[in-house]
TrEMBL record:
This is Aspartokinase. It comes from the Bacteria. GO terms for molecular function: aspartate kinase activity; ATP binding. Its EC number is 2.7.2.4. Pathway: Amino-acid biosynthesis; L-threonine biosynthesis; L-threonine from L-aspartate: step 1/5; Amino-acid biosynthesis; L-lysine biosynthesis via DAP pathway; (S)-tetrahydrodipicolinate from L-aspartate: step 1/4; Amino-acid biosynthesis; L-methionine biosynthesis via de novo pathway; L-homoserine from L-aspartate: step 1/3.
Length: 432
């Protein structure tokens, strides 16, 4: 059965990393194998900056950034291929020229359209180099353009997949030959051949789309960490790896802000019970983490999520009326219109509390202004939200000790408490 591997930007950031990917793939002889690849390193960020310069008409900055992008990729090609770099260099140069031409052509178009026509070149460049390197290393490959495989609508920067059309195009990839199929994550195309992008976590989603269409045996996402953890190791000094969790548990953690696999990636896999494994490309012997249907391990270890830079809005009716369903409907409708997600929602008889991320002031401030026009709103800033899955009372009490809870919510599986950020600095410890 087909295997799908996905490599992110960190795993292919330079020539040394690409060589390591080649060595890794040489150890996995199972076929058919589809390899989905992101842009190299921070290339997508560089392309977004290039886009901004193109749209602002900053010609000198645009030319400088385009040349930097060109040189970074050609340096990688030279380091990999040496005096045999000619054919790959020509392909990279051709892609850079196409990118430049598209910026000139679309700089006056609406930004989402312009974005999708140009930012996709990060993945086109990386897969061109990697496919050529795998051939050089003795592994036969076939380079595939994901814009011809993943069919979407024209909702640019967040395109929706046309599943029926995509299945029809992808089916033929599951062949019995010895080739590795190399394609891009994050990008797709309309039936008219217009480039699109899939939005947040798009490369992981691409791997899931292909696996779903091919009824794959497994998806493996290769990262610089051995797997998924029950808390952020940078904030919790005794975080432990979760070797097995269910789709539902992973989705719950993602919903509450954990840096795990995005729900839109898990959905297509869950529909067909295709497991997703997270493995370390730095330590192939390290035990991986697997997300699948088995729920037996979900409650064995509590999982914790810290979200910083949070704002709490306490909203009340000006006439001291109940915070009933029509008022909640109005307030939550405004939240939807603002394009914001509430990390915590808590309702009382005369109050509705919303915990929102400070990271989108362009959306948050208009929402607050709108609510203040019709409601009494008290705002608390600089807060940290702690979410704990499968916590007992003793664990919650220990984590909350010395901290003032401004809002709380709890159900059978999840507890949330909101604290002043000044009380949440430094490293946390999970009481055992």
């Amino acid at each position: 059965m087909t295997q799908v591997f996905k490599f992110g930007g960190a795993s292919i950031q330079d020539a040394a990393a690409i060589r390591r990917v080649g060595e890794l793939l040489a150890r996995f002889r199972a076929r058919p194998l589809i390899v989905v690849v992101s842009a190299m390193g921070k290339t997508t960020n560089a392309l977004e900056t290039l886009l901004a310069a193109a749209r602002a008409g900053e010609t000198e900055e645009y030319r400088d950034r385009l040349e930097t992008l060109r040189q970074e990729h050609l340096t990688t090609v030279e380091a990999l291929f040496g005096d045999r770099a000619g054919p790959v260099t020509e392909r990279v140069e051709a892609l850079i020229t196409e990118l430049d031409q598209l910026h000139r052509r679309h700089a006056s178009r609406e930004r989402p359209f312009h974005y999708d026509q140009t930012v996709c070149y990060g993945e086109l460049l990386s897969t061109t180099i990697i496919s050529a390197w795998l051939d050089e290393a003795g592994m036969a490959t076939e380079w595939l353009d994901a814009r011809d495989l993943v069919v979407t609508d024209d909702c640019h920067q967040a395109a929706n997949v046309d599943w029926q059309a995509t299945v029809e195009r992808v089916r033929g990839l599951a062949t019995d030959d010895d080739k590795i199929r190399v394609t891009q994550g994050f990008i797709g195309g309309t039936t008219e051949g217009v480039s699109t992008t899939l939005g947040r976590e798009g490369s992981d989603f691409s791997a899931a789309i292909l696996a779903h269409c091919l009824d794959a045996e497994e998806v493996t996402i290769w990262k610089d960490v051995p797997g998924l953890f029950n808390a952020d190791p940078r904030r919790f000094d005794n975080a432990v790896q979760l070797e097995r969790i269910s789709y539902d548990e992973a989705i719950e953690l993602a919903w509450h802000g954990a840096k795990v696999i995005h729900p839109k990636t898990l959905g297509p896999l869950q529909q067909k019970s295709i497991p997703l494994t997270v493995r370390s490309f730095e330590d192939l012997e390290a035990p991986p983490s697997t997300i699948g249907r088995d729920t037996r391990f979900d409650t064995q270890t509590p999982s914790l999520v810290l979200l910083e830079e949070q704002t709490l809005l306490e909203i009340r009716s000006r006439d001291f009326a109940f915070m009933d369903e029509p008022r909640q409907h109005d307030i939550l409708g405004r939240l939807v219109e603002a394009g914001l997600h509430a990390s915590l929602i808590d309702a009382g008889a005369m109050r509705l509390s919303l915990c929102l991320d400070d990271g989108h002031p362009d959306r948050l401030e208009p929402l607050v202004s709108s609510l203040c026009a019709d409601y009494a709103v008290v705002r608390h800033e600089d807060l940290t939200l702690l979410t704990v899955r499968h916590a007992d009372d003793a664990l919650l009490a220990a984590l909350s000790a010395g901290r003032d809870s401004l809002a709380e919510r709890r159900n059978a599986d999840t507890a949330q408490r909101l604290f002043p950020s000044t009380q949440c600095q430094g490293t946390w410890h999970i009481p055992l």
